[in-house]
Amino acid sequence: METILNFIDAHKEMIYFVILSIFVGVEVIGGVPTVLHTPLMSGANAIHGVVIVGAIHVMLNVNPDNILALILGSLAVLLGTLNVVGGFVVTDRMLEMFKKKK
Fold it and tell me: Which of 26, 85, 89, 90 has its CA 20 to 30 A from that of 49?
């Protein structure tokens, strides 16, 4: 318990930033009309390529003996890749709806 309290005390600004980001994200997404929700979310999913790059960067700089960090990094790369591919699939499918039919 002491370790958790020390971590929270040392990283107050980061914790405040994450909590504020959650509230801002909820307000931004809540204010989007239903018609625009799908394009917004598919675009946001495609932006998650940053997660992939960050996970690869962390995995390249981690000690090879740290199995937990390697597993979490691999999981982040896998889930980030799925999110990016899903974002592109949804965007492509949505754009197909607006093409003229022959």
Answer: 26
For 51, how many CA atoms within 13 A lie in the half-sphere containing its CB? 18
pTM: 0.58
Return all residues near 40 (Cβ < 8 A) that are at least 6 apart: 29, 32
Angle between helices 49-61 and 34-47 (to 10 degrees): 20
19-30 pLDDT, tens per residue? 998 898 888 777
Cα–Cα distance, 1 to 35 (Å, whole number): 47
Q: Where are the alpha helices (DSSP H) in 1-102?
A: 2-10, 12-30, 34-47, 49-61, 67-97
- Map out the domains of the chain as residue ranges: 1-31, 38-102
